[in-house]
Specification:
heterodimer; A: 164 residues; alpha+beta; 2 domains; 4-stranded mixed sheet; 7 helices; 11% strand; B: alpha/beta; Rossmann fold; Ubiquitin-like (UB roll); 5 domains; 5-stranded mixed sheet; 26 helices; 14% strand; globular
Chain lengths: 164, 631
């Protein structure tokens, strides 16, 4: 696994820190609470940089190395920031058989980034995801919460234009 | 806190309403029946597929138009779960007629409301075309897609509102739990499940009754019931549809399981990629607690059971039994060696059972209808039904539930409506990255756990991807290995390193650099992985390779010896060529080529220089005369 160093410096606010501490307080006594805490932390900050992991470690007593281990294991945890609009192209079997690989390539070409990266202006980040379960509509991609199905390569330009 | 008696009252109140949403002898009969407040029920699918096709806007528009036409007191709009025919979404069914509107657009709504809901004239041109025969509207049960289906696990999906516990109660929901708690001993519950022959629907097919029996036998101060809702197989969405369309059936089944083994706490581990399912489960759990179906002293019997949700975080391996439990404990999702088995030392080191969503969805009905009812469906060793997610190169993509023993041919040709664009069937892939391909010569195999293993595949969770002549089987094997390499947790050497080495060999072969010895190496590596990996991810990772080698060896040989990809997929083995007869010499391709690989004079046929061609395909996209092809 390649280590990804974030080039964007961490800018957490007091409000975010308060929210994080509240989450930790609430979940502290639950068994196996680390995952839910990290998931909520990512909701608050948008991603899980080492600074946030350190805060979690300081307030729960869980060693930082363990938190880092969990953060790097699961693909949902992002150690670098994401774009305002997160594009996720499904490369699951049904979508792949119906050409989602071409869609993914077209997006990389159009945005000038590869999977896992974010465009310089912070607009779009691109990832491949595994099956999201909408296989009846293959090929599928999501942009934030919107799901686009039955995609053709020609549709991409128009779809991206909708996002300022 | 509802008592059994209060449950019965709610059921009787709601039964007519939910039964209204089914086939009726005649319209007159339907209208005369006890159907609650509304004379017309409009069920709109709110599953992920239809939601992304805009079913939310359709519901909102329906509400507007119904109000405009003054029909709020007569017509209700219900957001339901998946009807199964996702290829034709957004889907809407109007009862009592059972009119199945497919590919509904927002602009169709005013007409449907005015003509059908207000005046009673079904809008035939907007119906699913297989239900229209001349002037007649056929019931859904007579269409090819639904004819052979038998919805048991999916029985409430598309019928009830998943966000209304009372509708669930109206379909005999929580009645099985009541029966179990007041009339049965835990060992009787286990016996019924054993006698039914129910086997795990997550893929391995282990007898559910046995799993419960082992856990029940172990003494402990705390035990756990876990539900595996981490449906990670790409191409599978059976569990998602149950969770979105009928979440209460899972809660009820887990409570029954808790009673059977002596557990008071359950966890549902649901993947985070299913936000709608998570939302519906949260609503259902809150309602179940409010009505006293979960919590302390259920039905006044002293039994207590509660359920918590835990979200996955994007790791396929967490669908593995011990990895899932490790994840709930707040760790990296790495599997553990067995023994000790989870029935003895599972979650938090306590006796635990883990069951798949679809397995659980069958439990309440087995309790109510009896073991013989369930065992009466299916084959000798595989009882009941199975839900399949039909996808890929097939016309009717979607969810189908069929009795075990149905043949692959029936599923693909009859239910699936055959292969689109006149292409030929090549293979069906079952079992996801752990499964294998089934070729045309095995088309008449009756589907069941043991038959599929005998022909080199496995049932898996239910994903069934159809492939046609344009699919390269070597590429497919490589695709699945890419997935397994990515998702391998890294804990054990055979899987961490073995999958990678197998992928490298496949990559070489698809690039025309493979040798015949590579095929031997693949088999050798496969044997290592199968016998030495810590968990089923590694043990089954070689399956796609082994099954494609078994049935499509000629394709591997073509890649290795002839350096050709017969299906025309592997880019490095293809050449882009211009058909001189079709080429008009318009020069568009030469201008768009990024590497100046095309030469030719204006109005004369052009030619591609294979040494400079990078196979980007831009020329083929640009050509307006179809003169460029791949070979």
């Amino acid at each position: 696994m390649l280590s990804k160093k974030s080039t964007v410096s961490f800018r957490g606010t007091e409000e975010q820190e308060k929210a994080l501490l509240a989450v930790i307080e609430e979940l502290r006594d639950e068994k196996g609470a680390l995952m839910p805490i990290m998931q909520k932390a990512q909701d608050i900050y948008g991603y899980l940089p080492i600074e946030v992991q350190t805060m979690i470690s300081d307030h729960t007593g869980i060693p930082l190395e363990k938190i880092y281990g969990v953060a790097t294991f699961y693909s949902q945890f992002n150690l670098s920031p994401k774009g305002r609009y997160q594009i996720s192209v499904c490369l699951g079997t049904a979508c792949y058989v119906k050409g989602s690989g071409d869609i993914y390539n077209k997006l990389m070409e159009k945005l000038g980034i590869v999977g896992g990266e974010c465009t310089a202006d912070g607009r779009f980040s691109l990832d491949a995801c595994r099956c999201i379960g909408a296989c009846g509509l293959a090929p599928v991609m999501t942009i934030n919460d919107e799901v686009y199905g039955r995609l053709k390569v020609e549709d991409i330009d128009d779809i991206l234009a909708k996002y300022e | 806190m509802k008592s059994l008696e209060e449950l019965r009252v709610i059921r009787e109140k709601m039964q007519g309403t939910v039964e209204y949403r089914s086939e009726h002898e005649s319209l007159a009969d339907a209208l005369a029946s006890e159907h609650g407040r509304y004379r017309a029920h409009v069920l709109v699918c709110g599953g992920t597929g239809c939601t992304s096709s805009g079913s939310q806007r359709i519901r909102e528009r329906l509400d507007d138009e119904i109000k405009k036409n003054g029909l709020e007191e007569e017509v209700c709009v219900i957001k339901t779960g998946c009807f199964g025919l996702c290829a034709l979404g957004p889907i809407m069914i109007v009862y009592p007629e059972g009119a199945f509107y497919s590919m509904v657009k927002e602009e169709d709504i005013p007409e449907i409301v005015e003509e059908h809901l207000a005046k009673g004239n079904v809008v035939k041109r907007l119906l699913y075309d297989e239900t229209v025969k001349g002037d007649e509207v056929l019931p859904l049960q007579e269409t090819n897609f639904y004819k052979k289906q038998h919805r048991v696990a999916l029985r409430n999906c598309g019928v009830i509102s998943p966000e209304d516990i009372e509708e669930y109660i109206g379909t005999h929901g929580y009645e099985a739990l009541g029966k179990v708690l007041t009339e049965m001993e835990p060992k009787d519950v286990i016996q019924i499940i054993l006698d039914s022959g129910l086997r795990g629907r997550g893929g391995a097919g282990f007898p559910t009754g046995m799993k419960w029996k082992f856990a029940a036998a172990n003494e402990a101060d705390q035990k756990y019931v876990c539900c595996n809702a981490d449906e990670g197989d790409p191409g599978a969405f059976m569990d998602r549809s149950v969770l979105e369309g009928d979440p209460h059936v899972i809660l009820e089944a887990m409570a029954i399981a808790g009673y059977a083994i002596g557990a008071s706490q359950g966890y549902i581990y649901v993947r985070a990629e299913y936000p709608i399912a998570v939302e519906r489960l949260n609503i259902a759990i809150a309602q179940a607690r409010e009505y006293g179906m979960l919590g302390e002293d259920i039905f006044g019997t002293g039994f207590k059971f509660d359920i918590e949700l835990r979200l996955g975080a994007g790791a396929f391996v967490c669908g593995e039994e011990t990895a899932l439990m490790t994840s709930i404990e707040g760790n990296r999702g790495e599997p553990r060696p067995r023994p000790p088995f989870p029935a003895l030392k599972g979650l938090f080191q306590k006796p635990t059972i883990l069951n798949n969503v679809e397995t659980l969805a069958n439990i309440p009905q087995i309790i109510l209808n009896g073991a013989e009812w369930f065992a009466g469906m299916g084959t000798e060793k595989s009882k009941g039904t199975k839900v399949f997610a039909l996808g890929g190169k097939v016309n009717n993509t979607g969810l189908v539930e069929i009795p075990m023993g149905t043949t692959l041919r029936e599923i693909v040709e009859e239910i699936g409506g055959g292969i689109p664009n006149g292409k030929k069937f090549k293979a069906a892939q079952t079992g996801g990255p752990s499964g294998g391909c089934i070729p045309a010569e095995k088309f008449d195999t009756p589907i069941d756990y043991d038959n599929l293993i005998a022909i080199g595949s496995m049932m898996g969770s239910g994903g069934l991807i159809v492939m046609d002549e344009d699919t390269c089987m070597v590429d497919i094997a490589k695709f699945f290995l890419e997935f397994t390499v990515d998702e391998s947790c890294g804990k054990c050497t055979p899987c961490r390193i073995g999958t990678r080495r197998m992928l490298e060999i496949l990559d070489k072969i698809t690039k025309g650099q493979g040798t015949m010895e590579d095929l031997d190496r693949l088999e050798e590596l496969a044997a290592h992985l199968k016998s030495n990996s810590l968990c089923a991810l590694g043990q089954t990772a070689p399956n796609p390779v082994l099954s494609t080698l078994r049935y499509f060896k000629d394709e591997y040989i073509a890649h290795i010896v002839d350096k050709k990809c017969p299906a025309g997929v592997c880019k490095d083995l293809l050449q882009y060529k211009i058909d001189a007869d079709k080429c008009k010499g318009c020069t568009l391709c030469a201008r768009i080529c990024p590497n100046e690989a095309i030469a030719g004079k204006v109005k004369e046929p052009h030619a591609i220089n294979p040494d400079k061609c990078v196979k980007c395909g831009a020329c083929m996209e640009k050509c307006r005369f179809g003169a460029i092809y791949k070979e």
